[in-house]
Amino acid sequence: MVISRNAIRYFRRNAEARGPCARTCAGAGHLLLDEPTAGLDPISSGEINELVLKLQQEHQMASIVVTHDLHSAKTIATRLALLDKGNVVIEGNFEDLQQSHIEFVQEFLKQS
Known about the structure:
This protein is 55% helix and 21% strand.
């Protein structure tokens, strides 16, 4: 199931819609999100992160999240892959990224 940014905005604004979304996503067994917290204030971003974590935990869902939001990635991901021009530069947990000596990874973390 892919959830668009418009859908995320809708679910963020309409609390009553979150339950059906969770049930729908749970049936799929996985969740695909593209920049779910882009342009959101920190409170709304936190709510989206909590929703993703809840889906992952309560329904044992796997999720693939494309994001530039490092706080969100650190919060919801157990494994990350950092890409540059479509190529995987590093893959691992957040601590692996932080401990990396790869210049691109260091610069990405510094600028984020």
